[in-house]
């Protein structure tokens, strides 16, 4: 099936007659990418499913007001990232624990997950990523897994390209060090 361009989706969404079709096209194009983006941040499959749903509800409610100041997919990623961060912060505040303890909990969830079918090396990489501070983890995931360019990540996170490059470099070094010390 041919991918529909974002401009066509936006045009169809503006028309009441084709709004539902446009949203379905948007879901087909982005739902899986957004699921994996969120899943890498929150680890838990059920939490990721809930957050994907919340993300697309927000997109539905706000897409008519999309101003084309950014690319559609960076706007969608910003919503998904913010939903994920809000979820992690709620979890931290609800349990009155530090973000390090949340990361430890996420690592335990990853180890016990029946929804993660990765091999030992993938689990070690995910464990290494979970040792990163939240912002570095998000930047690493967007660059490494989502293959986003620095200027696209900059649009999503509102951070300068220079700061992103530095954070990614530091994250890579931390992951390399972690992986060298495993086994």
Oligomer: single chain
What's the total helix number? 9
Query: Which shape, going by the Cα principal axes?
Result: globular
Range of strand content: under 5%
- Rg is 17 Å
Order of helices and strands: HHHHHHHHH
Distance between the termini: 44 Å
Task: Briefly note the structural class of the backbone.
Answer: mainly alpha
CATH class: Mainly Alpha
The low-confidence parts are none
CATH topology assignment: Rna Polymerase Sigma Factor, Chain: A
Report the count of strand segments.
0
What's the architecture in CATH terms? Orthogonal Bundle
Largest sheet: none
Query: Could you state the CATH homologous superfamily?
Result: RNA polymerase sigma factor, region 2, helix turn helix motif
- pLDDT averaged residue by residue: 87
Number of domains: 1
Helix content: over 70%
Provide a brief overview of the structure.
With 183 residues, the protein is mainly α. It contains 9 helices and no strands. It has a single domain (6-180), classed as RNA polymerase sigma factor, region 2, helix turn helix motif (Rna Polymerase Sigma Factor, Chain: A).
Characterization of this structure:
The chain has a single domain, classed as Rna Polymerase Sigma Factor, Chain: A (Orthogonal Bundle), CATH 1.10.1740.10. Helices cover 75% and strands 0% of the residues. It is built from nine helices and no strands. The chain has helices spanning 6-14, 19-42, 45-62, 72-94, 99-112, 120-130, 134-144, 150-157, 161-180. Helix 6 packs across helix 9.
